[in-house]
Amino acid sequence: MFKLLGLAGSLRRASMSKAIVQTLAEKAPADVEVTLFDLADIPMYNQDLEADLPAPVRALRDAVAASDGLIVVSPEYNHGMSGVIKNAIDWVSRPGYASVLVNKGVAIITTSESPLGGARAQADLHTMFLSCLARIALGREVSIGGTQKCVVDGRLVDETQIRRAMTLVDAMLDEICLVQGRAKRG
After folding, report:
1. Is the four-CA dihedral 86, 91, 95, 99 of positive or negative sign?
2. Could you report the per-residue pLDDT of 131-186, keeping only the tens digit for each?
3. How far is CA 20 from the centre of its chain?
4. Distance between CA 99 and CA 104 in Å, rounded?
């Protein structure tokens, strides 16, 4: 069984990012469990608090540590990644080069109402996760544009985008197998 943790970069109730994570959880193969971690209670990063981590941050670090990989879905704001995602990763990336992100599989998906689908946020996310020594899934980038048409009633409904996202998740699972020494999936 593979345990994947979904992180959505939007806090709003009707978050497109959360809807995408939830859709991928529903579409996941039988040997994959996807759990969405709600980032609403994560305080702003403050290095002074590292000696005695706030409970929500401890819960996030524990959830990342217990997972085999992350599905990170971030909207693009002002040509960059979501501050919600940046803040969460700042917390779990400590201590530097020895955090729970080292060798952690990561599938990055970005969204936007524009046709570009958050393509510019992809570069930010790649740079950030590479600096944390995470293992970014190889394959085509998944940038979902026109989210107002692709996400309906809290679910990703665009079959092409679902296939692209699931292909990226499969690539991450292959990377996890490589890192963990597991046999490659069928």
Report:
1. negative
2. 999 999 998 899 999 999 999 999 999 999 999 999 999 999 999 999 999 998 87
3. 11
4. 10
Q: List the domain boundaries for the chain.
A: 2-180
Fold of 2-180: Rossmann fold (3.40.50)
Q: CA-to-CA distance for 24 and 12, rounded, in angstroms?
A: 19
Distance (Å, whole) CA 131 – CA 149: 34
- How long a stretch of residues is the chain? 186
Which has the closest alpha carbon to 39: 87, 110, 4? 87
Evaluated on CA atoms 124, 70, 100, 102, the torsion sign reads negative
Let me know: does 156 contact 162? Beta carbons within 8 Å.
Answer: yes
Give the model's pLDDT for residue 186.
73
Residue 13: both structure tokens together: 């109730």
Look up residue 23 and give its two tokens: 């859709």
What is the distance between the alpha carbons of residues 104 and 2, in angstroms, rounded to a whole number?
12
Find all residues with CB under 8 Å of 3, minimum gap 6, and list them: 33, 35, 66, 67, 68
Buried b (16+ CB within 10 A) or exposed e, 71-95: bbbbbbeeeebbebbbebbbbbbbe
The answer to whether the pTM exceeds 0.90 is yes
pLDDT in tens, 73-95: 999 999 999 999 999 999 999 99
